[in-house]
Every structure is written in C-alpha cells, then in structure tokens.
Amino acid sequence: MVVVAAAAAALAAGCKSASAPTQPSPAVTVARPTSESVADYLDFTGNTAAINSVTVVARVEGYLEKIHFTDGARVKKGQLLFTIQQDQYKAQLAQAKAQVMAQKAALWHASTEFARYSDLVKQDAATQTTVDRWEYEKEAAAANLLAAEAQVEIAKLNLSYTEVRAPFDGRAGRHLVDTGALVGSMGQQTSLVEVDQIEPLFVYFTIDERDLLRLAQRRPAPGETVEQGTIPFFFGLLDEDGHPHEGRLDFAATSVAPTTGTLQVRGTYPNQDSRVLPGLFVRVRVPALKKREALLVPGDAISFDQQGEYVLVVNDKNVVERRAVKTGQQVGDALVVNEGLTADDRVIVEGILQAIPGREVAPHAADAGAPKTPATSAPAG
User: Fold this and answer.
1) Is residue 337 part of a domain?
2) pTM for the complete prediction?
3) How many domains does one find in the chain?
4) Are the C-beta atoms of 298 and 264 separated by less than 8 Å?
C-alpha cells in the first residue's frame, strides 16, 4: 500500500507539472528613430533695452509754464511736451530784428556816401582820405548787418527752445519738474522727462569663449555671406513657456572682453504691441545658420541612471538591451540623439517598466508617424 501511494503521488505531481502554463513575454511598443533636418541652437540669458533713451533737458533759462503730456503716455516725434516762459525770448527776437533794420540803414548810408565821394574825388572836389573812410564805413556796416542777422537766428533758436518737444516716437516717463519751477538757471541743464523708444527693442546678451568657438565652427563656407539683420534669434520672458518672440541679430562686439571672456551680441525685436519693456530678463535662443540631419526619439523613451542617459532597445532576438546615448536639443516632443543609436534600432517607447535588459519581450510596432515632431525645427521649449 505504501508503494502504491507513493506511485500515485508521483503520478499526480507529474501531471501537475506537465499542465503548468509558461509565463508569456511582456509586451512593449517599439519605434525606430526618425531622421529629420534640425538646426542646433545655443541658449543664453540677456536683457532688453530701449533702442533710444533720452533725458530731455531745458536748454534755456526760464520758468516752466505748462506741461502738455500725461506721465507714461505715448508721444510722437515733435510733440510739444513743455513750455518755458517765452516773453523775454520774444522780446530778444524783436530787438535782434530791429538791429538788423538799423544795420541795413547804416549800410545804405555808407554805400551812398562812398559812391558820392568816389565821384567827387575824380573831380578833385574831395580827398582820397574821405573816400577811404566811407569805404571803411560801408564794409563795417555790411559786417555789422551779418552779425545782426546772426543774432536774429540765435534769438529764434532760443525762442524755439522754450517749446520742448519729443525727440522721437516713444513713451514718456514722469515729469521731473513741476509747473512754475525755474529751469536752466546758471547755464545748468535741468532734466525734464525721460523718453524711451521701445518699438523696436534691443535684446543684449553675451557669449562665452566656448560657445563662441562652437559658433565659429558653424560659420558659412568660404564664399558664402550672411547679411546683417538676417540671422534670427528667439527669446522668452520669465512667465512664458519656450521662446515665442522672434527677432534678428544686428550687432556683435569686435573683440572678446579680456576680463570676462565674453562677447556682447545684440538683437532687434519689433515689439509692435509694446508689451515687452526695457530692462527685463529674457532667455535667448540662437539657432545655427545651417541645418543637419539628426535622429530623433520620443522624449519619454530617454531614461537616466548613475551612468547617464540611456534608452532600451530590442535586438533581432527580441531581447532587451541597454544603450547609452547622448542627446541634444528638444524638437517638439522628441529629443535629438547625437550618439548611441542608428536608424535601424528598435527603441522601446511604451512598456519601459516591464522591459528588463537581458530578458525577452514581445515587441509591437508603434503607430506610423511616431515620434511626433513639429513640421519645422524652429527652436521650441
């Protein structure tokens, strides 16, 4: 009976082992890297600045009679901003004009006498000394007339300075002097208001030596030229995602600053709605002049560990492998892979948690079009 029981137990165990199902391989979704023309870019930090910024000053002495603008308002070139007391300058202009009339009369009289005595000297009715004296009087009157006319122009200029106007289109700050105050006294230039032109707007940033050398490697080939103002750049404010504003680079310093090892670069942004103000901190992105072919994978396929960046790929035996990679910039939802992958690799894009390096998986191809990237490779994110 013992032998029969043991045989029955062994038979039952054999049947159970034979009927136990094998565990299936985990399913994962794979996709091959896509090839696309992308433009490399460099990121910087910078600041915005007004394209023109002027402190308007009083150029003549007098009491401030009237303020013709509202603090912070937009002003047009030539718009009247302040009026300085004009009475004395109008009187000076009238006096200068009267002096011109007097000198004209003196010139007429000297010219007439010079002509008369020139005729008399021919008849031996006058001396040459008298003729010479009236010639001198005529020349002196002509010079005095020129001086009087110059005084008229100076008087007109001083009178025009009593009307302080905007030097260009822009925005006026707050007025710095109140009505009734004496301005321009003792030859001092009294500051009246600051006017900034912010349409367009400057964006300044600096490039360090390392990035400058990288850009130098991407310069145009011999014989190719890049016109000033055609190189684009992008920037974003602190409260904005990505770099939504686009401008054009228009200036670079002629040498690297030896104290900081940086090169100053400037770009121009249209700023048509005047939303961006001077003095703001901005994140700047400058793309390379030329595009290059690159491999892209979805950003979710990139993982990180102590050894760095890596992706999981499936080989021809459906076994998972860890592949170290070096990524570049982001293009839409995808990342550029500079090293570590080929166009034929099958990258795991879904089911990464079930994929263990060295184990077999059941790969399924991702939907056509993955990874999704924007139609253009302009900098984003």
Assistant:
1) yes
2) 0.65
3) 3
4) no
